[in-house]
Amino acid sequence: RERGFWSCFQDFVDTPHLGQVSWMHRLRKLVRTAKQQNQTAEVSIVESLQILGIDEQHRTEFIEQTLLALRGFGGMIWQLETRGDRATFPLPPGTIVEFVAIRLLLDRAALSDLAATELEYRGSLADLACELRGRCPNHEEATYNVETFVVFQLAQMIGWLPPVLLEMSEAGWRRLLDEIREFDALERTRVFHLALERGFREQALSAIIHHNEVQRKLSVKSDTANNTARPENSDKPRVPKLEVICCIDDREESLRRHLEEIDPQVRTWGAAGFFSVPMYYQGAEAFQFTPLCPIVIQPRHYVRECVGLEHQGLHERRARVRQTIGQTAHGLHRASRGVLAGAAASLFGTWATIPLVMRVLFPRLTARFNNQVAELIQVPKQTYLQLERKATEPGIHETQIGFTLHEMTDMVERLLRDIGLTQQFAPLVLIIGHGSSSLNNPHESAYNCGACGGGRGGPNARAMAQMANDYRVREQLKQRGFEIPSSTFFVGLYHNTCDDSMVWFDLSLVPPSHQMEVRQAQEILAEARKRNAHERCRRFVSADLSLTREAALKHVESRAEDLSQTRPEYNHATNAMCVVGRRELTYGLYLDRRSFLVSYDGSQDDGQRAILARILAAVVPVCSGINLEYYFSAVDVQGFGCGTKLPHNVTSLLGVMDGAASDLRTGLSAQMTEIHEPLRLLFVIECPPADLLKVIQANSQLWRIFSGRWSQLASWDAAAQRMWLFDGQHFQNYQPRDPNLPHAASSYQWYHGWRHDLEFAELTSVRGGTDS
Known about the structure:
Blueprint: H1 5-14, H2 22-36, H3 41-51, H4 59-69, H5 73-82, H6 95-118, H7 128-135, H8 140-158, H9 162-166, H10 170-182, H11 185-226, E1 242-247, H12 251-262, E2 266-271, E3 279-282, E4 290-292, E5 302-307, H13 312-335, H14 339-361, H15 363-374, E6 383-386, H16 405-419, E7 428-435, H17 458-469, H18 471-479, E8 489-496, E9 501-504, H19 515-537, H20 549-561, E10 577-581, E11 589-590, E12 595-599, H21 610-635, E13 648-651, E14 655-658, H22 670-673, E15 682-686, H23 689-698, H24 700-707, E16 712-717, E17 722-726, E18 731-734, E19 743-744, H25 747-751, E20 761-763
Parallel strand pairs: 1-2, 1-7, 3-5, 7-8, 10-12, 10-15, 15-16, 19-20
Antiparallel strand pairs: 3-4, 5-6, 8-9, 11-20, 13-14, 16-17, 17-18
Helix pairs in contact: 2-6, 3-6, 12-19, 14-15, 15-20, 16-18, 19-20
């Protein structure tokens, strides 16, 4: 590892192996020559390109195709080289160049051997292409056969009889064949795909426009009845009973909606799930730091979870026990590859099937038993975060842990100002990070929080709550003109989106004055997780549509612990939209878990839209990246995705392969995309189009995404009550096709009994049963 890829590859190839194929002998000769000449990877690349006959004009394209020929590996090497902070063992600079050099050596050896054995060609590789072109068969007849069959299909669909075709002139035939050639399979796919996207776009934008028209009419009606000025969103109290800040994740859309249906006095918010706390985090049981922030951000701070002093001795003893168990298990694993230990493992292997069978037959019960046993060696629950340090500059070493007081103040202010929570604070504010856990799932990190770079957002939520409760942070905020009332307390939570469990952090720090509010919040969340599990179960074929809420919760808990379950949850499989704006835009809308929800209040932003620019810089790459990952994996599960997960083996703890030899399958499996409609993400942003255009033009990454049409963009001008659609260069006024919007009394009434995607609907339950 320390010597690098190029040097290790040369030594490996230069070592004789039994049973090598013929072209490997050619490769060994090439490697020995390179070693004798002390060639660097760069020199080897130049030599290979010359021998292969690649001229200067085509070298860039050829190298690009060389990198992409073996799917997954080139990209992973580049990630490990440029973002080594996200891997246990990063790669040194220049590894991607060495990878290209090795690939070209392999190409030279394989081509030389194939040309000699299959074509009996002994000339230079540079002239091989000309030799192959001379041997290619004529494909005109095959082309004519294909076009004849297409004409036959077209005649069947239109109803043409043979006389019609016989009487067609030569010019008519030429025009018909030209149309067929232009409207080939790819063009048909493109047109049908644009139609699919347009259908969803019409539904989504019409729903938002109609919903806001309903809210405006209700506001006018309320003003007229009361003969007084109605405050914005007066159907909810000015001071809510409970505030809940969730991740923008589309899976949290349903949780927020259920919380608001259970109690209209709950106010929910959406923020990127790292909650403005970019950090390298080390749990009390972890051996290394893990980055928890969007991939576009490289943290500069370290945070460590520590065990309280009163439990330090217990923690150290348990750590030694865990280390002993791990070393013993690893030793047995290695020994089982030998003759004697392997034979012993075979003899006692029958006993090892007992926990396996229990996992399959009784997953939930077995998980409870294992958790109770594991508590004997787990980290004590009484832990705290080492958040603060005294240094004035952020450290880059593990021993320099934490943030300065000024940095903590900045992060708290940024989170709350970005989402618009600057006044009318509830007594209790919950910050809920999320992640996922499932058994026997090599794709588990793909189910975690995208805003945490595939990590779990619980530590970020816990850290932000601890900072916001710090009286010194609040004092500094007050000096900046931003006051958090002393009557408000923050609590961090972790939501497991697979089994819908909730973990509460630092409840021992809750003051007596807020314990009643915490108990009430626990009751509300307990009901919300049942409803959330019930709505999720409608997508699972293994779950009967008649399940009760309690049974649905047990079902998702079992799926997370089921060894044989290939679909523990569907993750982002239905994502199609991202709404950036006030909650009023979508409050009371059933969005079918298809929308990312980002809180932003333009009335609290400055004229330059600095807050919006900051939000979009983090949200757009994360959400569009998630969407495109699902998009490409769905349209080509074998190519851009990773096929079925059943034969996958974990490779270097970085990706999966089919069996022992294949591409590195870095996409998503069929089990994660089978219910996904491949739509480019539709961003609906509450901001006048002129201001929004300036924001995306000022950020090259945002402009590349939207002008390149990798995502769709719409602007909602609340003042003018008009929607605008971005065409890649300008915003065009959008007129809804269908002004109607379905109504339902509750989420349950709308989704119950259905498994497929549903239309958006107006929920009357959140408006006290009032219908428009």
